[in-house]
Design goal:
alpha/beta; Rossmann fold; 7-stranded parallel sheet; 31% helix; binds (2R)-2,3-dihydroxypropanoic acid
């Protein structure tokens, strides 16, 4: 009898690779590079696969699922986001989906704080001036490169899951004044209290659900996008949202580029309608050419989707992805499974 086939679309970090390789009862077909596997390679190799381990750049759609055929039991995604996966399709085919939502919380929350400070304190603009040799022409003076301050700010979240709550935990140390957040059920509290910050005044800072996106936009000094990309959150931060934000406020996106309408953001920054932005993600990434209009915005800091890019986090994501793949094949409990 032939061995069950698993397809893995990247080379994995040492420990996770060893864990995968130790399964001699599997036929492992793996793209042997850190760079994305071409779609054609994935389609060619998916035939008769029982499991596929993918990255957020690999689309799981009808074409792939039907190419794999009836042997396909499980998809394991090396990510917290699942917007690259047609979840309804997997459900209808009884295919399980593993993901890594807990592994990267701290790393992404750290980066969220970094981007917030960079946007408020004009980090990108300040560094560019030094690198461009402009410092000699701008000796210290009281208003040089001034910006808003995190202490005393109201911070608004779109989406209030683990990463957002881990960010709040950090921001409390900076003396923020208030936190408002919008979930997919406006006006209702978060489904889960991950750090004991919610419900019953456990924190001295008010942390309250907002009734609408308008409330988050108009009240916040910092707006943090932390929600999943779905048809209802696509371009949630668009022209109207940005028009309601304070002129002194900054926008931070650590979720998915598509939640923010890039053209509207460029226009708002260009016209000084908001103070700045800190982005880990952008629509159309990684195709951001040198002449992209967002790169002309001095008050926008853009980094290339590095939210989870710490060594321990990526090691854990890799290990959990392999464990989820194996559990999916064997009908066992995954480390984290999407409830389809
Ligand atoms: C994910 O896993 O979805 C993150 O965006 C990676 O940083």
């Amino acid at each position: 009898m032939s061995k069950p086939k698993v397809v893995v679309t990247r080379k994995l970090i040492d420990h996770a690779q060893a864990l995968l390789d130790s399964n001699k009862d599997l036929e492992i077909v793996q793209w042997d590079s850190e760079k994305p596997a071409p779609r054609e390679w994935l389609l060619q190799n998916a035939q008769n696969a029982s499991g596929i381990l993918v990255m957020l750049t690999d689309k799981i759609d009808t074409e792939l699922v039907s190419t794999a055929g009836s042997t396909l039991k499980t998809i394991s995604s090396f990510s917290v986001g699942t917007d690259h996966v047609d979840t309804a399709l997997l459900k209808s085919h009884n295919i399980r989906l593993g993901y890594t939502p807990t592994a990267l919380t701290d790393a992404v929350a750290d980066l969220t704080v970094m981007l917030t400070l960079m946007a408020q304190r004009r980090g990108g603009e300040a560094m560019a001036k030094v690198l461009d040799g402009e410092w000699p022409q701008m000796p210290w003076h009281p208003l040089l490169m001034t910006g808003p301050q995190l202490g005393g700010s109201t911070v608004g979240f779109l989406g209030f899951g683990r990463i957002a709550q881990a960010t709040v935990k950090r921001l409390l140390g900076f003396g923020v004044k208030k936190v408002v957040y919008l979930t997919s059920r406006p006006g209702e509290g978060a489904r889960e209290d991950h750090y004991g910050l919610l419900g019953g005044g456990k924190s001295e800072v008010p942390i309250q659900p907002a009734k609408s996106w308008e409330e988050v936009a108009s009240e916040s000094d910092v707006v943090i996008v932390g929600c999943a990309l779905t048809p209802s959150t696509k371009h949630l931060v668009g022209k109207e949202f940005l028009a309601k934000m304070k002129k002194t406020a900054v926008l931070v996106n650590i979720a998915r580029g598509g939640v923010v309408d890039t053209d509207a953001l460029v226009e708002a920054l260009d016209q000084d309608r908001i103070f700045g932005a800190g982005l880990d993600v952008i629509e159309g990434e990684p195709n951001v050419p040198k002449d992209h209009p967002i790169l002309k915005q001095k008050r926008c800091v853009l980094v290339p989707h590095i939210g989870s890019a710490t060594v321990p986090t990526r090691e854990q994501m890799a290990e959990e992805s392999v464990k989820n793949l194996l559990a999916g094949l064997r009908g066992e409990e995954m480390v984290n499974e999407v409830k389809l």
